[in-house]
Amino acid sequence: MTRFRAFWSAIAAYLFILLSAGLAQAADPLPSWNDGEAKTAIIDYVTKVASEGQPGFVPVEERVAVFDNDGTLWPENPMPFQMAYAVDETKRLAATDPRVAADPMVKALLAGDIAALMAGPHHDGLLHIIALTHSGMTVDQFRSQVEDWMATAKHPRFGVRYDQLTYQPMQEVLAYFRANGFRTYIVSGGGADFMRVWSQRVYGIPPGQVVGSTARVTYELREAGPVLVKTMDNLVVDDKAGKPAGIHASIGQRPIAVFGNSDGDKEMLEYGTIANPRPSLGVIIHHTDAEREYQYDLNPQSSGKLDEALKQAPERGWTVISMKDDWKTVFSPQ
Amino acid sequence: MTRFRAFWSAIAAYLFILLSAGLAQAADPLPSWNDGEAKTAIIDYVTKVASEGQPGFVPVEERVAVFDNDGTLWPENPMPFQMAYAVDETKRLAATDPRVAADPMVKALLAGDIAALMAGPHHDGLLHIIALTHSGMTVDQFRSQVEDWMATAKHPRFGVRYDQLTYQPMQEVLAYFRANGFRTYIVSGGGADFMRVWSQRVYGIPPGQVVGSTARVTYELREAGPVLVKTMDNLVVDDKAGKPAGIHASIGQRPIAVFGNSDGDKEMLEYGTIANPRPSLGVIIHHTDAEREYQYDLNPQSSGKLDEALKQAPERGWTVISMKDDWKTVFSPQ
Question: How far apart are CA B67 and CA B166, in angstroms?
Fold first, then answer.
């Protein structure tokens, strides 16, 4: 009898060790993050708000996490990917439509005369290019054009499709938050219609959880069925103070976790973290890795200037991520 | 051996009968609906789109159902409940603020001079009352005012709180659709901020799934923390052709099931059901029950005119619900 008991005890102990090791391994929700303050801050926060009965617990209905896209979930260099789309699409249109090719701003773009596009206080040339490539068509036509582009266009430095350049550590954060009852939203200055084409496939974020810049669409019942035509009217830019306003318009709830990377995210970081009755988390991705990605803050190559938000981070308690130091890998495996 | 087998067969048969009876009972997802074409159409549709491997199956990501609110999920008589809020709130403000009391349009309202409020092509008096009661405050102040009102105000005919007047058959439809993988959205001409105060509690619909009329909010970082101030700028009315546009702006997906009750819902019924590559369902609630609720279509007492949509229903394949004939009970139990 004793021998039997000893035998089963040994087996039980062995199974327990195996199981514990397995659990410990499975329990690292952020394997692409180096151990350190940043990783600890994120895990401690999620553990706190998701632990029922503990101080800091937040009901699941209020677990709203918002993520900037360009520079936070994927790169924004050498230009925001949507701008690359506008450039490629302009070229495509100019190649087939002589009226487009004759357009002075299209000529400037094709000649690489960025100064002409950016002239004037409202960057009229740039807006003209955006209008050319983002209005006048139905939302279905726009969607299929973006899909075609995304399936073929390659990033000039990395040589892969743009949607293959999402940050693996942030994909893990998205999955980790969702596994803990959070609804994850994109809140970006990019166009909502542009992002919704691939948000579900690329980030697991459904179109209804994408908050971005918008303009009015007009409804028409045509012979072939109902359509929505994209216009440039009522343009609402979802950036800076527009981000809290966009969050309110689309989500109607105050987020408790906010991830951004630039001064364009400062107001939504404030909105989520200052005087919030719930425990909150503010995170800034600092682009510190010239080798694996890009290095910039005060003087970005394109968008993504980070100055005020970085200065305020210590006082506000925002966690600053150094891509170089905190991330084991940068891009998601293809 | 044979005796044993017979015994167990009898037990199995008995258990089978018990179980089948239990399942059949549990299987009526719409107990407040009378049996009939309308109920059958709804159940057949949901069964079809949710049956994996069958023709008509729709992936869960595309199961989007939209519901008008006033007249579809709760009454809109003697006036839309939000209008009752505006009236009561105006009285409250007039009682404490002499400047409000001296306002000519407030005087007209307090005197019951509806004609004065509705004068002019844009109903300037009415818009003035809406502005008085729906702008200038923070979204948090507005929310707590609506909460206070909803907790105390009583419907003039039924004598209960307004949020106690939701239609039980529609509550069952909401639950039934959600149980079958649908995301349920409100798409209403009412104010998004007004509905989001109680949408989760009353319908189980989170604020982010409420699409309604909106105006710009402005972000401010005040001493006490960040606030959003309600304005009347950029007013976007989520009605008629504004509904498909609002659905696109907030959901970014075409719905496959649409419930409405008036011509204000015609365009979203078209948008969901005409030339939709997925099987779709369009439903019109026809107010035919003067005794238990109200009876109107061409000449409603307030909002809710139903003419064109009703005429088009047979050709479009929209299911028309007669409240009087199809609903066993009207209001949810208190």
Answer: 13
